[in-house]
Design a protein that fits this description.
- The chain is built from one helix and no strands.
- It is mainly alpha-helical and 18 residues long.
- The longest helix has 16 residues.
- The model has no long low-confidence stretch (mean pLDDT 81).
- This is Large subunit of riblose-1,5-bisphosphate carboxylase/oxygenase.
- Keywords: Chloroplast, Plastid.
């Protein structure tokens, strides 16, 4: 579950950066 959350957080950060 932690890995999935980490992936989602990474995607969210990338969207925020974009």
């Amino acid at each position: 579950a932690c890995e999935v959350w980490k992936e989602i957080k990474f995607e969210f950060q990338a969207m925020d950066t974009l």
